[in-house]
Write a structure and sequence with these properties.
The structure is a single chain. The protein contains 22 helices and four strands. It is globular. It starts with a helix and ends with a helix.
């Protein structure tokens, strides 16, 4: 009877429904009376507490005993449950996965020598930066992080950034599975762990993706600001393993590599500390873009079908699929354009400031070129945002931004250059990066006093800005007479 029931109309005519297959894999097969791997799972609960009748399960085609069911539910609750909050993702699980993945590689604890090297480099970096920027020193010490330290200290920021995507995935998975699953099974699974099992699957999938993304980033970064913004607010840090990897193949003394990257880290820390709005603005733009992401439902179903809890590598491969469909809305396009411009302005500014501060560093130009190539081929920021929120950043504006900051500083001085970071309105748009005159005219209006603004507006409404054109036209009208007189004189 169980065999016949498995092929009933509940499965919408599919003999291999992906979600049924997933449940089989989770439970070792619903027909397995032994409950191997689940029957002795600690922390289980009594199925009757959920009103589950084993006889009803058998009528649904699930020939399992209470012991097996108890273990299965405990396993599901452990995998999908998030008892610490009402959020759709078990972030603790994602954090643990990131740390475990990092630990699988080479991640020794930082040594005292490394801490001393970072301290010496950042102390000299501060001295070199004092004449290169108007921003004051931060007042906090640059820390030394291992890869695991990076995961631990940056994870809350990734959690904030990825929140909208996690909610969307959870909601999409819930709707997709809810439309396909038999009513009896939905009723059975709806209350597992005090939450919704269906949305829990989407949450687990995204949690796995988040853990992998952060772990991958930890293996690439050289500092806490390597993605363009400080991942740990009001803190600065260098990652010696990343610094060493950055210098590989450059044939540059390690201490010079460390010093160059320390100057960048300290400069960015000063920038963000002096302009608190900047970090939050970038995070808000990322979240604004993420809220409009379209989830690939079929991709999620395929990933669910491939879940195999006994094979972590297979689970990672299933969850690493591209589940984001690039269907940018107008609002997303605006957010992406502004985000790319802001990150380019940050990178351009730190490039110019570091260039000025490291004039005495023998290999500074080679290090700068290496950093430029790193961004051009897709650095840590591009990789993590693409994998975590489906955000495809294009660092095409970095060079234009650096040229803008360099030219503006030469014309107006360092103090006026750095004052442009005071508010979003005083920064150039993407179009203005290559047109300094157009930018300066707009900023003049932004910074104008009320009287100056009223006078300019009155002049505009009265057609005053057209006067040069009128004068030019009058000159043209008068020119024939003058020309005739001149021609007459010449004829004479």
């Amino acid at each position: 009877m169980a065999d016949n029931d498995r092929n009933n109309p509940h499965d919408s005519g599919s003999e291999n429904d992906p979600f049924e297959e997933m449940f089989k894999k989770l439970g070792g097969g619903f027909g397995n009376q032994s409950g191997a791997g689940f029957g002795n799972t600690p922390g289980g609960f009594d199925p009757s507490s959920m009103g589950i009748d084993p006889e009803e399960l058998r009528r649904m085609g699930m020939n399992i005993d209470p012991a097996m069911l108890q273990g299965l539910m405990a396993q599901i609750s452990s995998m999908f449950g998030n008892t610490n909050s009402d959020e759709p993702v078990n972030w603790d699980m994602a954090r643990q996965q990131a740390r475990q993945l990092v630990a699988m590689g080479k991640d020794p604890s930082v040594t005292q020598n490394q801490k001393s090297a970072v301290a010496d480099a950042t102390q000299l970096a501060d001295l070199w930066l004092d004449p290169a920027t108007a921003f004051d020193r931060t007042g906090y010490t640059t820390e030394t992080w291992s890869k695991s330290d990076f995961v631990e200290n940056s994870f809350d920021t990734f959690r904030e950034i990825a929140g909208p995507i996690a909610e969307s995935m959870s909601r999409t998975m819930n709707q997709s599975m809810d439309s396909q699953m038999p009513e009896e099974l939905k009723s059975l699974l709806g209350g597992v762990g005090g939450g919704n099992f269906l949305s829990g699957i989407g949450g687990m999938m995204f949690g796995s993706m988040a853990g992998q993304s952060v772990a991958s980033l930890a293996g690439e970064v050289v500092s806490s600001t390597d993605v363009g913004l400080p991942l740990a607010d009001s803190r600065a840090a260098l990652v010696p393993q990343g610094v060493a990897a950055f210098g590989e193949g450059l044939e540059i003394p390690p201490q010079e590599v460390m010093l160059y990257l320390a100057v960048r880290e300290v400069a960015l820390s000063r920038l963000y500390k002096s302009n608190p709005w900047l970090r939050q603005d970038i995070i808000d733009l990322i979240k604004r873009y993420a809220r409009g992401i379209h989830i690939d439902v079929e991709g999620m179903r395929t990933a669910a079908e491939e879940i195999d809890p006994s094979d972590p590598a297979a689970m990672q491969e299933a969850f690493s699929a591209d589940l984001f469909t690039p269907e940018n809305t107008e609002d997303q396009k605006l957010a992406l354009e502004r985000l790319e411009t802001l990150l380019a302005l940050v990178e351009g500014w730190v490039t110019v400031v570091t260039e000025q501060a490291t004039k005495n560093l023998p290999m500074a130009s080679q290090l700068a070129e290496s950093m430029s190539r790193r961004h051009a081929t897709g650095g840590p920021a591009e990789h993590v945002f693409a994998s975590l929120v489906g955000l495809e950043l294009r660092p095409k504006l970095n060079r234009e931004a650096a040229t803008f900051w360099r030219n503006y500083g030469e014309e107006h001085g360092i103090d006026d250059r750095d004052k442009l970071w005071a508010a979003p309105e005083t920064l150039p748009t993407g179009e203005e990066l290559s047109n300094l005159t157009e930018y300066e005219q707009r900023v003049e209006m932004v910074n104008a006093t009320d009287d100056e603004f009223d006078a300019a507006l009155e002049k505009l409404l009265a057609g005053g800005y057209d006067e040069p054109a009128e004068e030019s036209k009058k000159d043209q009208d008068d020119r024939p007479d003058n020309d005739s007189q001149g021609e007459g004189k010449n004829d004479k």
